[in-house]
Amino acid sequence: MSSSDSKLLLYAKQEANQAITFENAGKFHQAINKYERAAEILIQFLRFNKNPIMRQNVQKSAEDYISRAKILRLKVSGKSSRRGTSSTSTFGSADDKSEAKEEGVSDEEQELLDMISGTIVTESPNVRWIEIAGLENCKQSLREAIVLPMIKPELFTGARKPWAGILLFGPPGCGKTLLAKAAATECNATFFSASSADLLSKWLGESEKLIGALFKVARLKAPSLIFMDEIDSIATKRGEGTESGGERRVKTQLLSEIQGLKTSHDKPLLVLGATNRPWDLDNAMLSRFEKKVYVPLPDLPARAAIFRIHTAGIESDLDDEDFIELGARSEGYSGRDIANVCREVIMLPIRELDMGGLLEKSDQEIKVRNINLNDFKNSIKKVKPMTTDSALKQYNDWKEEFGE
């Protein structure tokens, strides 16, 4: 069995174990999704593995997962159709549930809230502005758009209203997600990180319900910040003949939720989108994002600082001038590109020890040499930037046309 096959089996087992955990906790929607995901992974395994005994065992497991998902779906359907019964939801604390009842949440909607709580990552990011090198203009724009309205709501009254939607756009790997997390940390907001994979479902009508549930949870947990990464994957231009009816309904639901955002001074709710392809976004969706912030490639001081951040805790022979030189040599690199260069350099001393056979001698004391400037020079020649000049021109042209 190849390593890729074993990884698929391990992944399927992990999904199935999570399904069992969800089922035991009464979170049937999450359990259904995990059982179906485990079955899909096993079916993918069957396409490549030719061992008859292995195939028979794996096929039986896949059928068991599918069967269990069907049983749970019938159970959920039966439970939600009964009127007057109390919800057996496990979403949040008792206070959360009482808040939900005050909002007029039905039993079926409460089940969707449970579903969202398992698929949407709600976290305390614990990322500070100072941890992000450069991007001072972006930080100030987000502070004005997100942080100040939340920490000083009394300043935003009358015609001075905060933005309800902000779009971060720019080359990949430049810190859009970090900026969103830092903004949520600074204003002590509940941070919802939602991707297209979390919000899209193969079941008819479920994606629209998931989006509605996400915004409902965000209102209950306000002050909240909903961060939608790669929003272009679910909000592409409509009417181009390549979308299905389901995709159109998902876009319509998302548009209506952002447009009809219910927010107040004491419970603000903001939507922050991020994309590497702003030109693919539907015009109606662009209009919902009142503030557009361009996140460019890091400048020279920022690149030098990023080299410092990603070599912290590693013994090195580099001084301040060396970091400045590295910043100059890495023009056109994104933060992610520089992080990849640093990872390559950090592994060099370990690689040298391994190739010399020293790591196999367990009784011998191992001394790892310091990294130096030449290591970085050689690695920069190998690790090339991912953003091309033509792509940068496209971002600048879009910025000129739609503003920021």
Structural notes for this entry:
The protein is α/β, with parallel strands linked by helices and 404 residues long. The protein folds into 3 domains: 1-82, Methane Monooxygenase Hydroxylase, Chain G, domain 1 (Up-down Bundle); 121-296, 3-Layer(aba) Sandwich (Rossmann fold), CATH 3.40.50; 300-386, Helicase, Ruva Protein, domain 3 (Orthogonal Bundle), CATH 1.10.8. Helix content is 56%, strand content 7%. The chain contains 16 helices and 6 strands. It has helices at residues 3-24, 28-48, 52-81, 94-102, 107-119, 136-151, 176-186, 196-199, 206-220, 245-259, 283-288, 300-309, 320-329, 335-355, 373-382, 389-402; strands spanning 121-123, 165-169, 190-194, 224-228, 269-275, 291-294. It has a 6-stranded mixed beta sheet, sandwiched between helices. Strand 4 (224-228), helix 10 and strand 5 (269-275) form a beta-alpha-beta unit. Helix 6 (136-151) runs parallel beside helix 7 and helix 9 packs parallel to helix 10. Residues 79-102 have low confidence and may be disordered.
